[in-house]
Automatic annotation (TrEMBL):
GO CC term (a single one): plasma membrane
UniProt domain Copper amine oxidase N2-terminal: residue ranges: 74-143
Name of this protein: Amine oxidase
SUPFAM superfamilies: Amine oxidase catalytic domain, Amine oxidase N-terminal region
Copper amine oxidase N3-terminal domain segment(s): 161-258
Species this chain originates from: Furnarius figulus
Amino acid sequence: MNMKTVLILLGLALATIFALVCVLLTRGRAPSICQHLPLEQEGTEDGQSLVFADLTSEEMVQVVRYLQGNLGVQLVDASHAKPSDNCIASVDLQVPAKAEVLRFLDGGGARPPREALAVLYFGNQPDPNVTEYVVGPLPTPVYHRDVTVQKYGGKVPYHRRPVTGKEYMDINTLIQRELKKAPHFLTACCESDGTDLAILTTAPRGFKSGDRTTWFVLFHNVAGTGYYLLPVGLEVLVEHRDLHVSLWQLHKVFYNGRYFASTGDLEQEFVAGTLEVVRLKKTQADEVLGSVRPRHSPDSPGPLHFEPQGPRYRVTDNRITFQGWSIAFGMNPNSGPRLFDIRYRGERIVYELSLQEALALYGSNCPGGMSTRYLDGSFGIGRFAYELVRGLDCPYTATYVDRHYLVESDTPKTNQNSLCIFEHDSALPLRRHFSDSQSFYYGGLRKNTLVIRTISTLINYDYIWDFMFHGSGAVEVRVHATGYISTSFFYGQGTDYGNKVGPHTLGTMHLHHMHYKVDLDVDGQLNSLETQDMEYELIKDPWNMQNTIERPYLRRETLEREDEAVFPLNVPMPRYISFASPNLNKWRHPRSYRIQIVSVAGKHLPTSSSMERAISWGRYQLAVTRRKEEEPTSTSIYNQNDPWTPTVAFADFINNETITNEDLVAWISVGFLHIPHAEDVPNTVTVGNGVGFFLRPYNYFDEDPSVDSPDSVYLSSEQDSGACGANPLACLPPTAACAPRLPPFSYGGFLNL
């Protein structure tokens, strides 16, 4: 080997060593931290959206102080108020009248006074009642006015008030006292003295107006697991209408298919040996039916959602802007999420988009299950929207927002991080085409969507409420149900009402129905309702008169009155239903937004039912009415405890008024029938349990507005597809070669329990 060859080999060896050293030195080095770029400001941020903003904690405190000092009656803190006391039940924003708001937003008028709506329970009066006051102006109130009669046509009877936490505590004390009368039975049936049993309410509470008699279902309570799957077969009926707790009574007892007058009678039959008892064993938390504790150690982490250059949306106070969208958001403690003044490209499309109610109606051969019709608004859809778990309930890097509420207390509470906002890459093209003829090219756009999400835990169920805004100008509303199923003790012909999901557990059939208010303002307030669908016509073949052809054609119709614009649940309705403006697009079609419902709702309660009018909104998958300030909501928190004389009956909104070129509201029902099965244990999964609707532009634009998106991708056979300047996808490798700035994980969702 000559010297030249040796030097060459030595040089190669040194180069190899140098390369290896470089690799080793850089392997453990962390990538650079992603740098967030400033967003371009969209429109003006002049605080106009604050006209819709939820009350601050400070404003709530000022309202409470004002009421305590100006009503002339003693007010007890609702957290420990007896039925015979006066108390402040809740304080929330009084949303100003639409005409006032539009004068302010669009006409340069004065900002409407900021006011609160306070609900008070007056139990310490000759005529106990519920009264609602508007209090203002905020932040320093100087006036209040009673709006109860104006809103409801009369006083709200006291028995219609929602049950408070203090009332539930007093009922629990009564039940525990009565259970002590059956010690031998409880030991035999449940290995319990009664104090470790969970007690679950049902609703409504009786069979006629004025009743306040509730079935309570008892369960084994194993810490850290869902007691809802562990019924012990015992249910009790409690009468709790009287203002004096000492006069409340246990009226009836149910056990394993039999009814008894009292727990004493139940104990007597057990001791006499005439009662058939199913002996249940207590189990450990990690073995119990329905445990959601992990069964395996963590695996490698899954995909991570992050924005290499920071969020592309902006959140300012209660306003979100994103690629042409502008939305004001908030939360009603009773009815839940509400959005206002939804605009796209500067034009208002929706004035109000709000959840109204969530109904869960059950069947069972046990009294508690068969009589349950939960109206979750009376419990508090917004109030029970707790902190979201970062990285699971929402993307880790989402923006999290606190929500404040004042319910059953004189002190505001905060559900921190209980609403999230994020941009979602659905891993699906919004649109695309690959051309393989004439010319060769590809054009497409990722389906990136702005999502506003909150999740309510209403006893056993968790509802995931999503509001999504697409680059095509479409709005999507969706709800998923998860959490625990509600169950009954399995006996007799239980499978007529569900499926057996445990040794003694019947997963009871039920339906979920949700109701939304959509106040569309399509190119102005004045809209009409238009429908389009297809028919076939049989014609002779124009180029050969001996043959015929079935030709589809469009059947168009403008609906003129409210009675024409109600579409019963589970009855086919026109496939295209649109709110149409009198103004035309470039192609001479009315600028419109289409309502597209995605729902598999169960059957509505028969109209012959004595309580049906309280949920009469559920008759219709869609009903369109003229907007009226005196019809702000389709239901009331008072309907739950007196559905037989509902405070608000949606059916009364429909009175055949004209709906041509008027300010219209769409009331939309979505839902599904749920027959629980083995795979609902431990929790119902969201897969297949999501319903909702779309608001889609229909000739509103002259073309798909997403063509203006900076995310659009175009590739051709004549260009360099790897050039970052021409193809945003080619920019991803260098742009995403950084580590996201992840905040430390924390969770405080148990603070307000």
